[in-house]
Design brief:
CATH architecture of the largest domain in chain B: 3-Layer(aba) Sandwich
Number of domains of chain B: 2
Structural class of chain A: mainly alpha
CATH topology of the largest domain in chain B: D-Maltodextrin-Binding Protein, domain 2
Number of helices of chain B: 14
Radius of gyration of chain A: 23 Å
Number of strands of chain B: 10
Shape of chain A: globular
Order of helices and strands of chain B: HHHEHEHEHEHEHHEHEHEEHHEH
Distance between the termini of chain A: 80 Å
Order of helices and strands of chain A: HHHHHHHHHHEEHHHHHHHHHHHHH
Strand order of the largest sheet of chain A: 1-2
Oligomer: heterodimer
Largest sheet of chain B: 8 strands, mixed
CATH superfamily of the largest domain in chain B: Bordetella uptake gene, domain 1
Number of domains of chain A: 1
Structural class of chain B: alpha/beta
Chain lengths: ~500, ~325
């Protein structure tokens, strides 16, 4: 069949009431589930799966994809409004999204999140349709040594989110690295810092750490000093995002989308690191560098394009190789198999109608995401108007519930509060929380891939420079570190000169 | 008006009645009325995993038999240990049960010294599915049989590696067991184990060339085999597995490998009453004969095989003993 015939066959599958309804319904379910802290996109997809068994294959899969995309976007709503990310993928959105709410720009932040998400979604889908084969071949070149160098490079993000003091950023990152070592050792299977408590064997729950670190310190600060913000008026945030702002951030969004597409096509990385990497790259390149972390709209655009850029691209290894890149796509593979479809290279030959139907559906899903997302953010943005005396206790209840719901484990709620106190102390001492989080996500990945590389080579470090991909990331890492040191020294010199002038 | 008068006149009688009903409630009534409220079913792995999907698929026909809703609760972490401990410590009233799996209940107890529970802490009400294990290499590999693989491991020590979904997983034990069966004296020394995170990661590691081979549930390898990305070397069942053009353990004359299969079952704490276990055995029998359920499970490559509570116990104990002996012989036990 030619491409045109394939497209026609695919169109026939998608252009019916059920498929369109499934997509719209899926996106709606996803946005709502994503917006509830503790009900992650993964859970929403897993809970929707049984309903797809009775449907036509294409309808069922489109429903799940709708939930997935909606969920990733929905997570950014609470991240921006109440500093509590609905899904791990939206944790980078907090950094600038929540300060914008405090500046009375809730509507603007949510609007930019939506525009960036939809643009990234579209780019990601186009990348899937046009470059699936090429990107899949690229992904297969990624073994543990390549992962190791990529993550090593990603750790330089810490310098970008440290705020004023790199030293404080490193302290924060070290906390994250230490706490990430709790749990079972990957290679030996032995217990590390578990105090013989089975609850600690799985390590600290990521959502519990995330909510504890970002949402709880705000509440504690409010309890400690309830009168401090009394005179402050809440802004509805009637200001919506303008096209000029979108145009200004367009380059950042495209860059974030491509970062998302690359990281998404490599199995096993996920949306959160992609969002952070996109954020730090945007900050490095932006003329408004100083404003990042204080409510910069470009920061929201960067992180949201970074995490939604992953959504379409994770389907590349899924469709082209049959490899699930993360838990969500593993669930979606289940939906394929129930209908006797085996994702992989043969599927492009055996059932091209399904593949092209999916492609069409994906493009339509970007449109639905925009329409349903617009309604959702308007409905949710009134949260910014709720008086603090009512909002904060409600957020507290949501945090506890959300944290418990992830694993139905009361221990996680304890972890959340312990992290909350740590976060509060860090807040008081001016230590930024973002480096902690990045180290907590990337630290274990770095360690695991390093040790897997060493197992592969029998302990020889040569494997870490085994090919062009590793050389590329080593070079990037070195360039970035040199740049950080130089800018640090430049700052010191400028300070010294200023100091001298004053005397 | 009405209630106070009764209370005044018949106080002693009321107390006796209340006490009697309390006694009744606490003992015999439970079995007759069981279940009188929803049953918590703990899934010790996260949403979307093989256990989760299997559990949610059977919950549909099963809840119709039970007559009360089955509340599916994911308690993931530490290779299934957290969910298992939750059921180990639960009251044996039949309202908290576990979806137990080969990993949590035979491989882990055999391999991990510090596991917070033992196989004896559980009473099985049934096993309902079996997953054959298959070993495979990358499709373009020049290894074409188990003999080739073992020959290479012997000729060039350290050149053969196998991926798994983590230390103490079925995949870890399976690869070591298969190598040992085919004549490699010390698989732990002569081959390299590369643990990945999760079963998907393990299969990917073979595709990217990080590891030489893996042994995993046939269902998780089926699509790779069908797409000619992986080449199967053997399946551990005596009967051939659909879609796998590879010799069976029977063809290869290795009957010991027949024990090497994955399974999913339902278990409660060890003091679960007999009548409750018997009821579940009955409900499982009806649920597993449901046509729709069978179709869904078989589409994902699992084999429906129902075992009664007694059969489940002897099957699992036999597998545990075999695994334990292998682990001790190879020194694979994880201490500390």
């Amino acid at each position: 069949m030619t491409l045109l015939e394939n497209l026609a066959a695919g169109f026939e599958l998608v252009a019916n009431f059920e498929s369109v309804f499934a997509l719209a319904g899926g996106v709606l379910i996803g946005v709502i589930a994503g917006a509830i802290p503790g009900l992650s996109a993964t859970m929403a997809v897993a809970l929707t799966l049984p309903f797809t068994f009775a449907m036509q294959p294409i309808t069922g899969i489109l429903l799940l994809l709708g939930v997935y995309k909606g969920g990733i976007f929905g997570g950014s709503i609470p991240a921006i409004l109440i500093k509590t990310p609905g899904t791990p993928a939206s944790s980078a959105t907090i950094l600038d999204g929540h300060p914008m709410v405090k500046n009375g720009q809730a509507g603007k932040a949510l609007g930019m999140a939506l525009w960036a998400s939809c643009t990234a979604d579209l780019i990601s889908n186009l990348a899937l349709i046009l470059f699936a084969g090429w990107l899949a071949a690229f992904a297969l070149k990624f073994g543990p040594p390549e992962f190791f160098t990529l993550i090593l490079f990603s750790l330089t993000i810490i310098a970008g989110v440290s705020g004023d003091s790199l030293l404080k950023g490193i302290v924060s990152a070290l906390f994250g690295l230490i706490l990430a070592t709790i749990g079972l050792d990957l290679v030996y299977g032995t217990n590390r810092f578990t105090l013989n408590d089975p609850n600690l064997m799985g390590g600290l729950n990521f959502i519990a750490v995330l909510i504890g670190l970002f949402a709880i310190p705000e509440i504690l600060a409010m309890v400690w000093n309830p009168k401090s913000k009394e005179g402050e008026t809440q802004n509805l945030g009637k200001e919506w995002v303008t096209f000029a702002e979108y145009k200004r951030c367009f380059k950042t969004i495209v860059r974030g989308s491509f970062i998302g597409v690359f990281l998404g096509s490599i199995p096993g990385i996920g949306a959160a690191p992609s969002a952070f990497l996109s954020y730090s790259e945007a900050r490095r390149k932006s003329p408004n560098k100083e404003n990042f972390g204080k409510g910069e709209i470009e920061g929201v655009a960067a992180s949201e394009s970074g995490n939604n850029g992953v959504a379409g691209a994770t389907l590349i290894p899924l469709l082209a190789l049959g490899i699930p890149g993360d838990v969500i796509t593993a669930v979606i593979i289940g939906a394929f198999m129930v209908h006797n479809l085996q994702p992989g290279p043969m599927m492009f030959l055996n059932s091209p109608d399904i593949i092209y139907g999916l492609f069409m559906g994906l493009i339509i899903s970007s449109v639905f995401l925009f329409l349903i997302g617009s309604v959702a953010i308007r409905a949710f943005s009134y949260v910014a108007d709720i008086p603090r005396g009512i909002l904060f206790p409600a957020v507290m209840v949501l945090c506890v519930y959300g944290c418990y719901a992830v694993n139905n484990n009361i221990f996680d709620v304890g972890v959340m509060f312990a992290m909350g106190w740590l976060g509060y102390v860090m807040l008081c001492k001016g230590i930024p929380a973002a480096p902690f989080l990045i180290a907590f996500i990337l630290g274990p990945l770095l360690e695991d891939n390093f040790r897997q590389s060493m197992l592969m080579s029998g302990g020889s470090a040569e494997i870490l420079v085994r090919g062009p991909i590793t050389w590329f990331f080593w070079t990037l890492t070195i360039i970035t570190i040199v740049a950080i040191i130089r800018s640090g020294m430049g700052k010191k010199k400028a300070e010294a000169v200023e100091h001298g002038n004053q005397e | 008006m009405y209630i106070p008068r009764i209370a005044k006149n018949n106080k002693p009688k009321l107390i006796i009645a209340a006490a009697m009903s309390a006694v009744l409630l606490s003992s015999s009534v439970i079995a007759a009325d069981y279940p009188s409220r929803p049953v918590n079913m703990i899934i010790p792995y996260g949403p979307g995993g093989a256990t989760d999907i299997s559990a949610r698929t059977i919950s549909e026909p099963l809840s119709k038999e039970v007559g009360k809703p089955l509340v599916m609760v994911n308690k993931a972490g530490a290779g299934g240990a957290i969910g298992s401990v939750a059921v180990q410590n639960a009251k044996a009233d039949g309202y908290t049960l576990l979806f137990a799996r080969v990993g949590t209940h035979t491989v882990n107890p055999a391999m991990k010294a510090t596991l917070p529970y033992k196989l004896e802490d559980f009473r099985f009400v049934g096993v309902y599915e079996i997953n054959p294990v298959a070993c495979a290499v990358k499709a373009d590999s020049d290894i074409n049989s188990m003999e080739d693989l073992v020959a290479q491991a012997k000729a060039k020590p350290g050149s053969v590696s196998y991926s798994s979904s983590g230390v103490g997983s079925l995949l870890h034990l399976a690869a070591a067991m298969v190598l040992k069966e085919f004549g490699l004296e010390n698989p732990v020394k002569q081959a390299t184990h590369i643990p990945m995170k999760g079963g998907g990661g393990a299969a990917t590691a073979v595709l990217t060339g990080t590891a030489t081979f893996l042994c995993s549930n046939s269902s998780s390898l089926a699509s790779f085999v069908k797409n000619k990305q992986l080449k199967p070397l053997l399946v551990t069942t005596a009967e051939p597995v659909a879609g796998f053009d590879a010799p069976t353990s029977k063809d290869l004359g290795k009957p010991a490998l027949e024990q090497l299969v994955g399974w999913t079952g339902i278990a409660g704490p060890d003091d679960l009453p007999d009548d409750i276990a018997a009821s579940w055995g009955k409900w499982l029998a009806t649920a597993t004969s449901n046509k729709e359920f069978k179709e869904k499970m078989e589409a994902r490559g699992s084999v429906i095989r129902l075992m009664s509570p007694e059969e489940s116990k002897s099957f699992i104990n036999a597998q545990y003993k075999q695994f334990k002996a292998l682990v001790d012989e190879l020194g694979m036990r994880v201490e500390g």
